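ok trying this again, last paste got cut off
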Amino acid sequence: MKKRLIVDIDGVLADIYGQFRKFELEDFGHNQDLSKITGKLEEEAFVNGEIYMATQGFFRHASVIKGSVEAIEKLNQRHDLFIVSAATKFPNSMAEKQEWLLEHFPFITWEQIVFCGTKEIIKGDIMIDDHFKNLDKFYGQTILFSQPHNLNRIENGHSRVTNWKEIIELLS
């Protein structure tokens, strides 16, 4: 029987830190050193983070995290896979994220994309996310995708991974 796999977008499939740094470079002429923002949530690390996320094109033009396309394609064949994003806080992000997914993950159908306000309502067997707030409330296997904001925290029962190769190995 296939397991239901829940996969986050921001920080797991899409390089959101790259977007924050790109926007800051345009606004302030510099990139923050990632080591100086380790342990800080995006809103703390990037002064204009919420403004950037509400800006047209922020989500649409994010880079794809290395290895995610191939891994998701493989996992999509073995699992009931759903891409889930708590996107309703930034309404323009929903259309941008859907367009982004269609471009980079064309094998994902519209029926596999879920936009919500909170991931507490999401049920499945496995969740891959970069935020503790989502994983801590999930009633299944949890995989923490390493990002600067979660590096100084103890895994708290979640399996930590640093790349998509490790996810494939963990779920094989």
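PB: full thing came through this time. DSSP finds seven helices and eight strands in the chain.
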